[in-house]
Write a structure and sequence with these properties.
The protein is extended, with a radius of gyration of 38 Å. The strands form eight sheets. Strands 18-17-19-20-26-25-24-22 form an eight-stranded mixed β-sheet. Strands 6-5-4-3-7-8-36 form a seven-stranded mixed β-sheet, with helices on both faces. Strands 10-16-15-12-13 form a five-stranded mixed β-sheet, with no helix packed on it. By secondary structure, the chain is an alpha+beta fold. The chain contains 16 helices and 37 strands.
Length: 764
């Protein structure tokens, strides 16, 4: 838009303006009366001019005492950017009162009528229309720079169906916004049924920091129709056959009070658990279940994977009122369960019972996927009589059966030479993970000498530690990209979370070795940042060094929220990758044992030669088969964390029975080794709740500095609300006239003109 300029005159002198002006008029008048007697000696009609010029120059000179300043204010206005994101998930095809689907109502609001709302907004803002398609976005139309950049005519319809399998109000909205610039606003038209990864509330908080308000427009009734639905099933993805399977079924209940209903779990037609109840219409309800795993029906003879079981969780209205529900498509959910034959193993070695290692041991001890062993040194005078030698794995094979070793503040002198060789072999050849946790006694420095030096990714150039206060964590760019360091579902919120966690009281002063990657630093106020988490692959395995043993302080007021999550993620990342199917040459595994439709599976493959040695230059391929038919061929890439391991991500998976086959090279045939993979139907999360999630939409709007609107308010109130984001760039230029040529040049010209005129009139 064209800039506008406003010019004003201000007075900034040390004397009152009124006094200066009165003085200026007074002296000018006195000057006039002083020189007017000259007029009787002048016969010309111009005789009064010299006196007037003298009076005017005196007036200007005295007026300079008021400090006149000329102010030029130029305003350049730019159109604000408005991104309209429309939810097209399956819940948006629900019909509320009036019998019109939610998506159709949103379409009519934006694109319908003689003057569509979308067209009206283009008169004052740059506008972009984006559809949310689950995890993805689809940019439909834009009109920027007052029509200079437009994608075409205004569309009449969205031309899509409300069929996206999930609603993501975090990652998908980030993608819809793109790079955030000043003067941007986000308008989200949705029923608020967020059921994808990420946190909409945390996303909204980051948008407030970027001065980008979010205006949420809510669709759907807030009064739930009569319905029952399975919201979630919380239970272990794997369990041992001699244990009891425990878990919780979460349902949404909006039935009339007293309506009889039943929740049950079956497997292959056999009822494993059930509980009758009466509906109360009060929303979410929880039912805890437990049953012996050994009572599950045996796997069918045709099933390759004998460890897989499928559970069907159902909820339904009983008796004469069974047709009462709004829909039955949300009444069941399938859950895959794997029967374990062995747990993953972790060995914890420390020089003393520190808080850190005690809490870590408790985390592993409570996790049914892990078997943990804890050894503290008792500092016996004779090494053979000490607890380390008594409890350390007796044989090499026993040690190599572990997946992860945590080594604390323990001297290598407490081990025998062959045990140190075993530890080296565990990392370099077995492919095991090693986590080093430094301590105040500084025993880890001793491991950096001799044969164990290759295991240490850092060096200690000075004293072993500092007792400085205010030591906080900061992730490096490499650490920000590492999933194992995610303590928040939102990547941007995770970066800002780390420095706010409780401070460390002690940290070792180290430098990263060549080839090592610093994932996080520790910095105290007024001091340089120290490497805090340093990673380096070693042979077939991986080593992670932590410069402090004060992570347990993160438990303050939040318990296991951050501490347990971090350690279990680090363990899954650094430990030797699990493989569910193995033979002499190939090992095949996946990152998880339970998947839902739409998710991707990470395939892991390890290749050995005829001598049993790991192969690092192989070019293996994985073949994904659904119901016996090949649906994808994956080129596996080397894993930078573990030597001799290759990884690939499958395409998004549909519900069904899968098999993973591997060929060692592009020209090799598929091996007979197969890994079975079952993607269980988790039901449609879009139908779990049939009402608008107003609390979350209000929270998003309030956290970002925007506002929540119901759909009937949006058409009239939204245009005025969006005008507030119009960007203005104001340039101010001030000229101090009293000390510039702009003021004194007229005075000089007036006096010069007076002198010349006086000379012509022969008054001098």
């Amino acid at each position: 838009m064209n800039p506008t300029t406003e010019t004003t005159l201000r007075f900034t002198g040390d004397y009152p303006v009124t006094t200066v002006w009165l003085l200026a008029f007074g002296l000018a008048a006195a000057m006039w009366f002083l020189y007017r007697r000259e007029l009787k000696f002048v016969g010309s009609a111009w005789g009064w001019v010299p006196a007037a010029l003298r009076c005017l120059s005196v007036f200007l000179l005295v007026l300079a005492l008021s400090g006149p300043v000329m102010r030029r204010e130029t305003t350049q206005r730019q159109l604000g950017r408005v991104v309209l994101a429309v939810d097209t998930s399956a819940s948006m095809k629900l019909e509320d009162e009036g019998g019109v689907a939610r998506l159709l109502r949103a379409e009519k609001m934006l694109l319908g009528g003689t003057t569509p709302l979308l067209k009206k907004l283009t008169e004052t803002q740059d506008v972009e229309l984006v559809l949310l398609r689950g995890q993805q976005t689809q940019r439909v139309w834009w009109n920027r720079q007052k029509g200079k950049d437009v994608s075409g005519d205004l569309p009449g319809t969205f031309e899509v169906q409300a069929d996206a399998p999930i609603t993501n109000l975090d990652n998908a909205l980030r993608d819809a916004l793109g790079p955030v610039t000043p003067g941007t606003a986000l308008v989200v038209l949705t029923d608020g049924q967020h059921n994808g990864p990420g946190s909409p509330e945390e996303f909204a908080s980051t948008m407030k920091a970027a001065s980008t308000p979010i205006f949420t427009v809510g669709f759907g009734s807030e009064v739930p129709p009569p319905d029952l639905s399975v919201v979630n099933v919380v239970t272990a993805e794997s369990v041992f056959t001699e244990e009891n399977l425990q878990g919780r079924v979460l349902i949404s209940d909006s039935l009339p009070a007293g309506t009889p209903a039943l929740v049950k779990i079956t497997s292959a037609g056999k009822t494993m658990w059930e509980q009758p109840f009466n509906g109360d219409g009060k929303g979410e309800r929880r039912f805890d279940f437990q049953f012996p795993v050994k009572e599950l029906p045996a796997a069918p003879a045709t099933e390759r994977d004998k460890t897989l079981r499928l559970l069907n969780v159902q909820v339904a209205v009983q008796g004469e009122r069974s047709n009462l529900e709004k829909t039955r498509s949300n009444n069941s959910r399938e859950v895959a369960l794997h029967l374990l034959t062995k747990k993953r193993k972790v060995l914890i070695l420390d020089g003393r019972p520190r808080w850190e290692t005690r809490y870590i041991h408790n985390h592993f001890d409570r996790d049914e996927r892990w078997e943990s062993k804890l050894i503290f040194d008792d500092y016996a005078e004779k090494i053979d009589d000490g607890s380390v030698q008594k409890l350390f794995p007796v044989t090499r094979v026993d040690l190599l059966s572990y997946d992860l070793i945590l080594l604390g503040d323990l001297s290598p002198s407490r081990f025998k030479e062959f045990q140190l060789d075993w530890l080296l072999e565990f990392v370099e050849k077995r492919g095991g993970g090693l986590v080093l946790i430094d301590g105040f006694h500084g025993h880890l420095k001793e491991w950096a000498k001799g044969k164990t030096a290759p295991l240490i990714p850092v060096a200690w150039p000075g004293k072993s530690g500092t007792l400085a206060k205010n030591i906080v964590w900061h992730l490096t760019p490499d650490g920000e990209r590492q999933q194992a360091l995610r303590l928040s579902d939102s990547p941007s919120a995770n970066v800002t979370l780390w420095p706010t966690l409780p401070e460390m009281r002690w940290a070792a002063q180290v430098t990263a070795q060549s080839g090592a990657v610093t994932l996080a630093t520790l910095g105290a106020s007024g001091s340089a940042a120290l490497p805090a988490a340093v990673f380096r692959p070693v042979g077939a395995g991986a080593v992670l060094y932590l410069a402090t043993d004060d992570l347990w302080r993160w438990r303050f007021q939040v318990g296991d929220l951050y501490h347990q999550r971090l350690w279990m993620q680090l363990a899954a990342w650094v430990a030797a990758p699990p493989f569910q199917a193995e033979d002499k040459k190939l090992s095949i595994g996946t990152d998880r044992m339970r998947y839902t439709p739409g998710e991707q599976s990470e395939i892991r493959v390890r290749v050995r030669n005829a001598a049993g040695e790991l192969v690092s230059d192989a070019e293996p391929r994985a073949f994904v088969l659904l119901d016996g038919k090949e649906i994808a061929t994956l080129q596996l890439e080397p894993d930078t964390t573990h030597f001799g391991v290759y990884r690939a991500l499958t395409p998004p998976l549909k519900a069904g029975a899968y098999e993973i086959a591997v060929a060692e090279s592009p020209s090799a045939a598929r091996s007979d080794l197969r890994l079975s993979l079952r993607v269980a139907d988790a039901g449609n999360p879009e139908w779990a709740t049939l009402t608008m999630n107003r609390p979350m939409l209000e929270a998003m709007a309030n956290a970002s500095g925007g506002r929540f609107l119901r759909e009937e308010q949006a058409a009239t109130e939204l245009p005025n609300l969006l005008k507030s984001i119009d960007r203005k760039q104001i340039t101010i230029q001030e000229t101090a006239l009293w000390s510039s040529w702009w003021w004194f040049t007229p005075v000089i010209l007036l006096l010069s003109a007076e002198w010349l005129l006086r000379k012509r009139l022969k008054l001098v």
